[in-house]
Amino acid sequence: MGSMIEVRGLTKQFKGFTAVNDLSFTVNEGDVYGFLGQNGAGKSTTLRMMLKLIEPTSGEIVFSGKNIANDNNNMLRQTGAIIERPDMYKYLSAYDNLYIFAKMSGIKVSKKLLMDQLAMVGLDERHKDIVKTFSQGMKQRLGIAIALVHQPKLIILDEPTNGLDPQGIADMRNLILRLSREMGKTVIVSSHLLSEIEIIANRMIIIHKGQKIVEGKVTELLDPANTLVEITSVDSAATLAALQQTNWAAQVETHTNKMLRLRMNRSDVPQLVQQLTHLQSQILSVQPRHSLEDYFLSLTNNDTHVEPFTN
Ligand SMILES: Nc1ncnc2c1ncn2[C@@H]1O[C@H](COP(=O)(O)OP(=O)(O)OP(=O)(O)O)[C@@H](O)[C@H]1O
Known about the structure:
- The protein folds into 2 domains: about 220 residues, P-loop containing nucleotide triphosphate hydrolases (Rossmann fold, 3-Layer(aba) Sandwich); about 70 residues, Alpha-Beta Plaits, CATH 3.30.70.
- About 35% of the residues lie in helices and about 30% in strands.
- α5 packs parallel to α6.
- The structure holds adenosine-5'-triphosphate (ATP).
- Adenosine-5'-triphosphate binds next to β2 and α1.
């Protein structure tokens, strides 16, 4: 499918501080596009510029071929968003909240439309209950029903699983996947967790200090054939010597006196463990990690110097 949004050289400065720095990326129609970065990386600032809540210092956002700065709010009309915790009337029911927001958006409201919308987010059976009695996850899902009531083709969700319990997180993931697969929505979703993006997105961008680190297909960036496996054992030198007698020798990438690192296919890990046991290595741990995961974690620990990611 073709591109829906093209962001080119987007920059935002707040009183001399550059929150978003020359950022370019493309969101294709039908994508669940993961926007990954640590707290403060510039995710919300970018999403806010896409929603015209703040103005870019420079650069452009092009939607369906037109710069949104002068598209007569075409992109906004076709977008539903949850950027902060959605504001709701907590002493009114889920149905009444949706009714009010639907009326405000100017669409033709019918009971069927609103109930269908509530069913989509799994709240039809609770439609008479007041929002004050809802869990955070339920409020978040009602927020999505509100954001989607005018049938937009794009939905932007800023950290939608933040503050949710495990059930709420699972419900939210399933909802995002359904929005994409069953309803054909394009979804942009931000998170500070790679594991989260890995599950729901087909394409993603990682940003750090306002700059793009990497962008691409999740399956390519998180290719299982390119997994780093870290092995710690009682005697690392002995484990290395044992491995050198096997076909795994060529895969050993680094070793210290505490651990060994192999680059290999994730699906071969059980076989490696079996062989290590057979060789009577006293293994303490075997930890498969994708190199992108390692890289992303290193950003957390390294505040001063950032090497570009290479796969
Ligand atoms: N209105 C503002 N004035 C000054 N600085 C701002 C403003 N908004 C954001 N910033 C700064 O810009 C940087 C990026 O913030 P942003 O909220 O976009 O990050 P984020 O990736 O969404 O992280 P988080 O998940 O913590 O919100 C931060 O250092 C933040 O303090």
